[in-house]
Amino acid sequence: MRNAVIVALALSAALPLLAQTSSRPSFPDDYTPSPCAPEGTCKSYDRSQLTSAAFTMLGLTPDGKWFDSHYDQMMQLFAPICKKHATCLATPGNNFLFCDDILIREYRAVCDKNFPKSANPSDYEQCKEFTEIWALGVDMGANQFAKTGQNCAKEKGLAVMHAKPPVIWIEPATIPRDYKGDIYVYAIDPDTHVPVRADITMDKQIIYAPANPAGNLATGYPFKWAHKYNRVKRADGHEDLEAPMMTIKPELYPAVTMRLPSEVPKMIVQMKPSILHAGVNKVTVTATDAETGKPVEARVNVGPDAVGDTNTPIEITVPKSGKVPEVWVTSLFDAYSDVVVTTK
Q1: 253, exposed or middle or buried, with CB in 10 Å at 0-12, 13-18, 19+?
Q2: What is the CA 166 to chain-centroid distance, rounded?
Q3: Which residues pair with 317 in a beta bridge?
Q4: Inter-CA distances, 296 with 160, 244, 285, Å
Q5: Of 342, 188, 174, 343, whose CA–CA distance to 273 is shortest?
Q6: Rounded distance, CA 183 to CA 21, Å?
Q7: Which pTM was predicted?
Q8: Contact between 77 and 114 (Cβ < 8 Å)
Q9: CA 234 to CA 238: how far, in whole Å?
Q10: pLDDT per residue as tens, the chain (344 positions)
Q11: Whole-angstrom Cα distance, residue 322 to residue 338?
């Protein structure tokens, strides 16, 4: 019982973070069922126990009459998802927590489609509570079914390295510059269209996925990114910023490397006056964001030395020889790539 309560608490804490739905299905309906999909994977609390379990495990107080009168209907609505669940559990490289979490969205969508809140808020709430406790019961027994399915897959020679990498996509497909929401990476087998669990690493950055029981970045689990770009050397010795590369590594597929889809903001830099003469020059180097037109706080450098900030009057000394030093601007907060104003 102690383990059951721990699982309940973990599930109730994690699943709300998985509520976002991908613009394309994370588990397509045209998937190929596994020959090792175990029977009975959607076994949950007994019909007569659902109401009390909802209170004991999740602190819910559902309408027992609604649960009983809609039980058969809910089982029919859940049946296609249960079949997906069984195939996911039997797919080598997946585990029961991944399969439970990747499908919770589909279970919840049953309420949105069949008991829309706009039509009857009461039915919608009862459906939601039914789904949460029923899914929790399924989760508690899924590990044993996963072992059965995985053992079968090994016996049938299905647990082998695939030649083709999984199909990968990211939500959102393009990460807006001020985006603070959740980011998802999804992967499916290119032939069977079954979801693939894979660990994800981010180049030069450490990011966690709180909803993942393991804590690390993984397919199907949301994470947030603070728009931190990596610096890379250019041919001229200065540095550009670029979004980090991600490596998606499933257990039995080739790894896939791709860049996080976020475009680095650009700044427009100008120096007034634009021509330097021998001696002391009083200038202002302006920097503005190319998209918003707002001023950008950045550091003005002459050669290797910092001489002031953008959008503020500064002095630049040119030797009597008239050789103009290189003037360049760098972002103080790694928000923009370096910009050269005058070359050596």
Answers
A1: buried
A2: 17
A3: 280
A4: 53, 23, 11
A5: 342
A6: 11
A7: 0.85
A8: yes
A9: 5
A10: 333 333 443 343 334 344 444 578 999 999 999 999 999 998 999 999 999 999 999 999 999 999 999 999 999 999 999 999 999 999 999 999 999 999 999 999 999 999 999 999 999 999 999 999 999 999 999 999 999 999 999 999 999 999 999 999 999 999 999 899 999 999 999 999 999 999 999 999 999 999 999 999 999 999 999 999 999 999 999 999 999 999 999 999 999 999 999 999 999 999 999 999 999 999 999 999 999 999 999 999 999 999 999 999 999 999 888 788 899 999 988 999 999 998 66
A11: 25
Domain ranges of the chain: 2-155, 167-259, 267-342
- Residue 98: helix, strand or coil by DSSP? helix
Give the pair of three-digit tokens for residue 10.
């973990």
Q: How many angstroms separate the Cα of 303 from the Cα of each of 212, 222, 268, 325?
A: 47, 43, 20, 6
The two three-digit tokens of residue 188, written as one number: 């499916």
**Six token digits for residue 28:** 């397509």
- Torsion, Cα 81 200 215 130, to 10 degrees, reads -10
